[in-house]
Amino acid sequence: MQALVFLLCACVSLEPAYVVIDGDTFVLAGERIRIANIDAPESQDAGCKTENQLAEQAKRQLESLLVTGFITVNRGDPVTGRLKGPDGDTLATVSIDGADVGEMMIEAGVARKASAGSARPAVLQASSSNVACIQATAGR
């Protein structure tokens, strides 16, 4: 009986099944997946501190959603039909126990609905202190 318990414990991984990259991208089973129906701010493209904070907020929200249930990945962008993004990421809609993750991110205020061909993630919240930053980085 002790050997059986040891074997069962040896098979359990402490590694998470996924790694969140940012508010709309994560790696699942070695595959990098970009949630096709949303845009979220990304810290690597942040033009100012506020935008970087928004990116971190979006990332944390996605992390908190992915732990809540069974993840289903439906490959392909529902608007364009493309399977891969320009960076090679798999484009997909993602659901947790049947609920659309993109819609949940939008409802949480950390992402916006993706527009066809959008190249830059959304900057979602503009206060008077960061409008200049957003305008300066919007053309990148």
UniProtKB/TrEMBL annotation:
SUPFAM superfamilies: Staphylococcal nuclease. Residues 20-112 form the TNase-like domain. Pfam families: SNase. It comes from the Bacteria. This is Thermonuclease family protein. It comes from Mesorhizobium zhangyense.
